[in-house]
Amino acid sequence: MATTQEGQESSRPKSTLSPFTLVHAILLMAGSGGNLLLRVYFLHGGSRLWLSSLLQVAAWPLLLLPLSFSTKKFNLSLSVYSVFAFIGILWALDCYLYALASAYLPLSTSSLVISSQLAFTSVFAFLLVRQRFTPFSFNAVVLLTIGPVVLSMGEGSDRPEGESKGKYILGFLMAVAAAALIGFIFAFMELAMRRGKVVQTYAAAMEMQLAIGISSTVFCLVGMVINNDFQVIPREANEFGLGKTKYYLVLIGDAVFWQLSNIGLVGLVSGASSLFVAIMTALQLPFLEILAVIFLHEKFSASKGIALALSIWGFVSYLYGEKKQSDKAKKAAQQELVTIA
User: Fold this and answer.
1) Which of 93, 98, 232, 276 is an S-S bond match for 272, by CB 3.0 to 4.6 Å?
2) 77-86 pLDDT, tens digit each
């Protein structure tokens, strides 16, 4: 069992509106830069899939500094660490699938397809943690799932110049596979936290991410060794379209942004739920669409516009439902106090 801290802390209720959740939501949104820089890497000559997978998980040493200020150094049990190390391997596989999708799809397209993870998360959350759905959350899931379907109807219209239709379709399929796997990971992570009775603290969230980061980094490093990535990196840096110095800056910046996103994801599962994480990930979509159009000069087709509108509609529906549930709970609590008095 995980070590408990103060009674008040351990009994802290999960809420989508708590400061803990807000902090991790901000970290997740700030991590959107990782998606952008990963696409920049591929656009300007980068091609190493295992290296790009490593970038998504390797900046976990950044967590060691804030963890050093924690009064309790070990907030999790050995069994919980082991489970999250296993989750790290699944996370690395998902990063590889996402890297493959990013290599062949425009950022705006891959982001829209990845947003279908909400549908997968909903199914796995229902099966693994018995997630309860309100009409508003169900409506959000439907709307955010229809978006990628609409996008697929315009398949190929935004295919990068010179890229084969086969690679475009492969990228699309890998994006769907990545969405399915991350949906399972979110729900499985929530189940592991419940079973391990993990306390909702910043230190515990960082330690879970640390376990994920270490195991996923080792997994990606093995892939890089087998694929001879270390021998190719110097040559790739010299041939990079933006120059050698910017090549390494892109790699470093990408890793930092992804770490912000990763700790945000883990913290949101701990502070709220796997479904809320999926909703927040879908919220990244408008930011990524805007970033892709502004910085990467990607086309913004009609199908993307419709998919984006459906995604925003779905997110607003979810937030409205959450507010109604929160107001209902507060009203019930007040009536209970009046009855007791």
Assistant:
1) 276
2) 899 999 999 9
Side chain identity at residue 259, one-letter code: Q
Looking at residue 91, its pLDDT comes to 97
* pLDDT tens-digit series, residues 19-63: 898 999 999 999 999 989 998 999 999 999 999 999 999 999 999
Please state, in angstroms and rounded to a whole number, the distance separating the CA atoms of residues 141 and 311: 9
Radius of gyration over alpha carbons of the chain, in Å? 20
Whole-number Å distance between alpha carbons of 2 and 311: 37
3-state secondary structure of 201: coil
Q: How many other β-carbons are positioned within 10 Å of the β-carbon of residue 287?
A: 16
Rounded to whole angstroms, the Cα distance separating 308 from 282 reads: 10
Place of tokens 């936290």: 193
Residue 274 contacts residue 190 (beta carbons within 8 Å): yes
The pair of three-digit structure tokens given for residue 1, joined into one six-digit string: 């069992």
> What integer is the mean pLDDT of 268-285?
85
Measured between alpha carbons, how far is residue 5 from residues 9, 76, 209 in Å? 7, 11, 19
Can you read off the two tokens belonging to residue 197? 């009775």
Q: Taking the model in full, what pTM does it have?
A: 0.83
